[in-house]
Amino acid sequence: MQLNQYKNIVILGMGKTGFSCAKFLVQQHIDFVINDSREQPPMLSDLLAIQKAEHIYTGGFKRELILNADLIILSQGISLQTALLIEARKNNIKMINEVDLFTTYATAPIIAITGSNAKSTVTTLVGHILKHAGLKVLVGGNIGIPLLELLAQPEPDYYVLELSNFQLELTHNLNAKIACVLNLSPDHLDRYENYAAYVAAKKRIYCEAEIAVYNLDDKLTYPEYPCRTQTFSLTQNTMGFHLLETKSGIYLAKDKEVYILATILKLKGKHNWENALSASAIAYEVGISLKIIGQALINFTGLFHRCQWVATHRGIEWFNDSKGTNIGATHAAILGLGSCCQGKLILILGGQSKGADFQPLISPIKKYVKQVIILGEDALKINNTLKSHTIITLVSDLEEAVSFALKLSEAGDIVLFSPACASFDMFNNFEHRGQVYMDRVKELIAHDCCSDV
Prior knowledge:
Elements: E1 9-12, H1 16-27, E2 33-35, H2 44-48, E3 56-57, H3 63-67, E4 71-74, H4 83-90, E5 94-96, H5 98-105, E6 110-114, H6 119-132, E7 137-141, H7 147-150, E8 158-162, H8 165-168, E9 178-181, H9 195-203, E10 211-215, E11 228-233, E12 241-246, E13 249-254, E14 257-261, H10 270-286, H11 290-298, E15 308-313, E16 316-320, H12 327-338, E17 345-349, H13 362-368, E18 369-374, H14 379-386, E19 392-394, H15 398-408, E20 414-417, H16 430-451
Parallel strand pairs: 1-2, 1-4, 2-3, 4-5, 6-8, 6-9, 7-8, 9-10, 10-11, 11-12, 16-20, 17-18, 17-20, 18-19
Antiparallel strand pairs: 12-13, 13-14, 15-16
Helix pairs in contact: 6-10, 6-11, 10-11, 12-13, 15-16
């Protein structure tokens, strides 16, 4: 795709993605206009520094602008079901996003990773393993460095990219060396017509991929495009990457060859062992030996806000899983930590539920959770689903939730903050939410220690 063949390029959206696309086109000396539905989009002042004011349109999508375009570059926050975009597609106006821009200019092979949960952890872990093996790697996309900014850096041996379903919706030419769908569970159902549409968006990652790495335990992740495959699994131990239990413990294994004892990893819980298996499968297909993969796994401590250990006090462990913004993430966190907890879990959840059904949490809650503490915009909705199956307390804010969890817990218990919801009802983002939780935990522990003096 040659951008200079298009005469009327319109970028839609002035958030981080739109600004990144605009900055890239300026660097390529490509003319464009940019449009946002908001009066004061977040990156407006930055855009005014690189683009003429008369080429910047705010306060609503401009019909004439969009329908006269011959190329629309769409930010990932804007739905394809927007009325003007439906009309533009009917008029055969070409639409792309930042992924297509990136792949047009990138020359190094791409490792592309998506999934409903754990994609940030696995993407980071794959980058960590490849760097440990001596390869030059750039990690980015939906995590860390925006896609187009990666192109400004020296060419690596591999790009390792986390891609969201929004980024994959319009992707036409990803052509990944290795593509992986980690898992699929209902999410963003406020954006899609149905769950099948969400799944289809995720699985576009496999299109034209050379190698597909998928989850044997989740049939929805199976590739439907012809390519070489590799698998990982927590439950099947006959092929691919899996757990293998021996007299000396539980190991990560490839086929029948063990390569590291699972219990010595700093990543705790079976859901994190699954993350290690998927990252191992990807690294193995790059050509890295099991020995080096095992060495790299030992040194990986995980990511902030993703089942992150916060503190241990009076025999009670506190974990921050603020990145658990959907049901699948919280389900995995409960099972992962519950299976290695000496006592019971106290679960803190709630926020904006994005139309999710909380029924799938009932079974793991009944098995592992002592009590559920709920807060946020959709607290009553969540309470109505879970109240017949566990003890529930509704609280007004996160500080109150942490204080109440401290009163409930006893030695051997784990307090797990895994909201299963978006954060925007009470916080700037999931990072802000997680930091508030951690600060409150440490504050209460410090106060509790002082009271003993």
